[in-house]
């Protein structure tokens, strides 16, 4: 998958400057070396159908889609973390968005109305985390807000 992204992004990033390509190529190669990637998409047709069915909330459906995508991203990342697998969240569609998105759609065989929202790369065991601070009492948290 990352080979497809690299191939689509390389000409666009090189056109932005050799320094841009050199900086991004290292990142791409690191993601390519991951054990796997979870790709998160959003269906434009599903969003449109929901907006048509719930007309009073129609203007909010793009926002709802963002919320749903964010929840899915954090849930997948948390599940990988709970299994002890290291993961990182990427939004590579911002690099050569048209070219990369079209290449990814073809590679993943998703419908044309899908839009790419994120990639979660996973691989080696998660690295040690710092100690978790002691939880505050509810009243202390509430007062600080």
TrEMBL record:
Record's InterPro entries? Answer: Frm2/Hbn1, Nitroreductase-like
Name the GO terms of the biological process aspect: cellular response to oxidative stress
Q: Name one GO molecular function term.
A: oxidoreductase activity
TM segment ranges: none
Q: What is this protein called?
A: Nitroreductase family protein
The scientific name of the source species is Fusarium austroafricanum
What taxonomic lineage is listed for the species of origin?
A: Eukaryota, Fungi, Dikarya, Ascomycota, Pezizomycotina
